[in-house]
Design goal:
The protein is α/β, with parallel strands linked by helices. The chain has ten helices and 16 strands. It has two domains: 9-30 and 264-350, 3-Layer(aba) Sandwich (Rossmann fold); 33-247, DHBP synthase. The protein binds threonylcarbamoyladenylate and magnesium ion.
Length: 356
């Protein structure tokens, strides 16, 4: 099983020899696609044995195909940066859109996000079901920062499909799952649609999706419900059931519509991209062999692997931002693999910001 080195900040040792920066780091093993590709019979009937096998694969850090009542999801352990990076790699997404986090219960949701009384009301009416709420992450929320693309909110729902619920009960951990299609393709509503485009170990066959359309996404903010994406539950139905208006998205500065880039993670320190040298007061976000002379170094991938780098990106940006470095210098990252999405994120983080 490929294991990604833990995100790790290393003090730069000015007297270091060439090997010092790899001390303690395990070499990164790229995902062995022969282990996951083209397995015969990867569509599995959802027997309890198959659900246990899928749970083992998930716990081992690999994605699976999961039926929900809306569309099939490409599901991964939401608390593992490594597993979430594999989801982006498999989907070939050019950007890190934040993913929906699926949980087994309201109790589990409350360990991840702050649920105000209005959010609880919505949850009690519509969970399990095709409704997602965007809520503030709790400070100790264990969900991968990559899964929420560095945002301080999480999109969360309890799916209603019995197979999804059985899997969530079995793994007892939150599951990140975007629709199980290649980026740009339409969402899959049958197991075969998933098998046609994604090479994964197992796709649990839950039959055709009853809703066949992604979940409705509401942002819950300041006792207001804002529609971010129309979907499986009609707005009128929500308003009628809970007696509370659902507002259209009117302030795109506050939050951008899903599908486009959401208000991006903006570090407080200045960021300098494609750095070929580094100042003594700068923190270095390294890729491959680090440049010498930085105040501190966070290495996205010692072995210059873009999937590993994606897994570490947000956690390391947060760590450098929280450090006492004056600024962050980022080494060049090639546009191959997840490099394109990493560079997209870095460019947004480095873009001049309106401070108002
Ligand atoms: O029905 C569904 O929602 C399916 C099934 C598998 O659950 N999932 C799905 O995921 O449609 P995906 O990744 O294709 O769409 C997730 C949407 C994206 O448009 C994303 O921008 C938005 O949710 N989203 C996720 N986290 C968000 C956040 N923190 N704030 C705003 N939007 C968010
Ligand atoms: Mg999708």
């Amino acid at each position: 099983m490929a294991r990604i080195v833990e995100p790790k900040i290393e003090e730069t040792n000015t007297e270091s020899d060439e090997d010092n920066w790899t001390i303690g780091a395990e070499p990164f093993k790229p995902i062995d696609m022969t282990q996951v590709a083209n397995k015969k019979g990867k569509i599995a009937a959802p027997t309890s044995q198959a659900i246990k096998r899928a749970a083992d694969i998930l716990r081992g850090g690999d994605p699976i195909g999961l039926p929900t009542e809306t569309v099939y999801g490409l599901a991964a352990d939401a608390c593992s940066d490594d597993a979430v990076a594999k989801v982006f790699a498999l989907k070939q997404r050019p950007q890190f859109n934040p993913l929906i986090i699926h949980v087994a219960s309201i109790e589990m949701a409350q360990t991840l996000v702050h649920m105000c009384p209005l959010a609880r009301l919505v949850a009690e009416h519509f969970w399990p079901g095709p409704l997602t709420m965007v809520l503030p992450r709790l400070p100790d929320c264990p969900v991968s920062l990559l899964a929420s693309a560095g945002l301080d909110t999480l999109a969360i729902r309890i799916p209603a499909h019995p197979v999804a619920r059985a899997l969530l009960d079995e793994v007892a951990t939150p599951i990140a799952a975007p629709s199980a299609n290649l980026s740009g393709n339409i969402s899959p509503t049958k197991a075969q649609h998933v098998a046609d485009q994604l090479d994964i170990n197992i796709i649990l066959d839950g039959g055709p999706c009853k809703v066949g359309l992604e979940s409705t996404i509401l942002k819950v903010d300041d006792n207001q419900l804002i529609l971010l994406r129309p979907g499986g539950i009609a707005v009128a139905h929500i308003e009628q059931a809970i007696g509370h208006a659902v507002d259209p998205l009117t302030n795109p500065d506050k939050i951008t519509a899903p599908g486009q880039m959401i208000a991006h993670y903006a570090p407080s320190k200045p960021i300098r991209l494609d750095a070929l040298d580094v100042a003594a007061n700068e923190g270095l976000l390294a890729f491959g062999k680090p440049l010498p002379g930085a105040k501190m170094v966070a290495n996205l991938s010692v072995g210059a692997n873009t999937t590993e780098a994606a897994a570490n990106l947000f956690a390391m940006m947060h760590e450098l931002d929280a450090s006492d470095c004056a600024a962050i210098a980022v080494m060049p990252i090639p546009d191959e693999g997840l490099g394109q999405a990493i560079n997209d994120r870095l460019q947004r983080a480095a873009a001049p910001r309106d401070k108002s």
